[in-house]
Design a protein that fits this description.
This protein has helices spanning 10-14, 32-39, 43-52, 68-82, 136-160; strands at residues 29-31, 65-67, 90-93, 98-101, 108-111, 117-122, 129-134. The chain is of the alpha+beta class. It has 2 domains: 10-82, Arc Repressor Mutant, subunit A (Orthogonal Bundle); 90-160, no CATH class. Strand 3 (90-93) and strand 4 form a beta hairpin. Helix 2 (32-39) crosses helix 3.
């Protein structure tokens, strides 16, 4: 019996799925087709992982076998390496795909009614809007920082007049 993909609607096929390494059983061996079926991705995706550093058990002999523990470690490392952590004074820009500092004077803090607050600003490089949720404690610190910057701008405007 051949492999048949699960029946999905057109919108489900267009959506990008995240690969969850926890689905791999570490004590099993997998072929390229097995991993592709497990993650509902194309076989070429798994072959690309092999080219990028996923180790196989039988060094190029067919069928290619990957140990479950090695595959899981490879995928977890790959996911961890692509994450970008923002510092406290940075927001993540979706256009640049990097944490960036906001332009001076564009930071705004909005309280959403509960403990978390939304920090927004404009990217200093591309000019797009950026957003970040911050905790209640960090929101108080950021609010004072934003107020100081506003006072500093007001002083420079008065001195210019």
């Amino acid at each position: 019996m051949g492999y048949r993909p699960a029946q999905m609607g057109r919108s489900a096929l267009n959506r990008r799925q995240r690969i969850d390494p926890r689905r791999i059983k570490i004590h099993l061996s997998y072929t390229v087709e097995d991993l592709a079926r497990l993650f509902a991705c194309h076989k070429q995706t798994v072959r690309n992982w092999l080219k990028q550093g996923l180790a196989s058990l039988n060094d190029g002999k067919r069928p290619l076998l990957m140990q479950g523990g090695v595959a899981r470690t490879y995928l977890e490392t790959r996911r961890r390496d692509t994450k970008r952590r923002c510092k406290t004074d940075e927001l993540y820009c979706l256009s640049c795909r990097e944490p960036r500092a906001a332009e001076k004077g564009t930071l705004r803090l909005e309280h959403l009614g509960g403990p978390p607050a939304m920090l927004s600003g404009t990217c200093s490089l591309c000019g797009n809007r950026m957003f970040k949720r911050v905790s209640a404690g960090a929101a108080v610190d950021l609010q004072t920082q934003i107020e100081r910057e506003a006072e500093g701008r007001a002083r420079t405007l008065k001195q210019a007049d």
